[in-house]
Request: fold
Amino acid sequence: MKQSHFFTFGGETLFPSEPIYTVSFFGHRVISDFSSVESKVEQLISALLTHHQHVDFLVGRNGDFDLLVTAAIKRWQSQTHSDACSLIWMLPYPTAELQPHLFDFEAYYDDIEVCQTAAQAHPKQAFQIRNREMVERSNLVVFYVAHSHGGAYQTLCYARKRGKALVNLAFPE
Reply:
């Protein structure tokens, strides 16, 4: 019988150890306490990469939290020269900035995916469809949600409803 191994972050047992682990990130466009959130993100990334053979990190590119997470993952990759993780940019549809800068984006991200279901939907619905697909793919969903409105909050509610393991970095431990 396979034995599951759990580890803790912030004093709570969060997730079983698996060889391949998928984590998605969602947060507000504006972060007021940038350095505190950055520190929490770096600690979480370090814990995940210590306890898993490989982690696929699914990220957007739509605000402070997304950029902070992406930068933390890229720093980890450059400091360790390890292939223990993949940084995957998840798009709801091909954006106007994608094609003219595709070469640069492909050099920065390990993979770029367009959510086909979202790409076929109305643009106002596309982000939430993409977010839900990211949640469904994830073993762990990480949030920075400090108020009860907006797309990140809606995604947090969806992840809770689906019974996903989640962490909200907006609140002190």
